[in-house]
Design goal:
By secondary structure, the protein is mainly α. It has 2 domains: 47 residues, no CATH class; 50 residues, no CATH class. The protein is built from 5 helices and no strands. The radius of gyration is 25 Å and the shape is elongated.
């Protein structure tokens, strides 16, 4: 694959802050540029989505009241679950959910036993 070099002018402070943010998640500026270009290439046949997503990235608006309300409800729900676990003496790591097929089999077995079929 042929490689090409891109030169971009960007505010120095923005570059420094962006580099620090990318470094904190282990991504180089070049990797980020490649990721954005890959995203654009994957969505080349959907220009409305591409335009919407890129405009969303440029916006630095506070969350709407509805989004903020929903996030608060999620946090409240998480607190309710955490309080319940604490009250019941359960640490979250102790719960190992069953795969769907096993859970379904257990439910059928309980139903059959309650009807005297097992």
């Amino acid at each position: 694959m042929a490689m090409t070099q891109m030169n971009v002018r960007i505010d120095e402070q923005l570059r420094l802050e962006g580099n620090a943010a990318l470094e904190s998640i282990g991504i180089s500026p070049a990797q980020m540029v490649r990721a954005v270009w890959s995203y654009a290439a994957r969505n080349k046949n959907n220009p409305l989505k591409l335009e919407h997503d890129l405009k969303f990235l440029e916006e630095d608006k506070p969350l709407s009241e509805e989004v903020q309300r929903r996030l608060e409800l999620i946090a409240e729900g998480q607190k309710i679950v955490a309080d319940f676990y604490k009250e019941m003496g359960i640490t979250p790591g102790e719960i190992d959910p069953l795969p769907y097929d096993e859970l379904k089999e257990l439910a059928y077995r309980e139903r059959w036993e309650s009807r005297g079929l097992l």
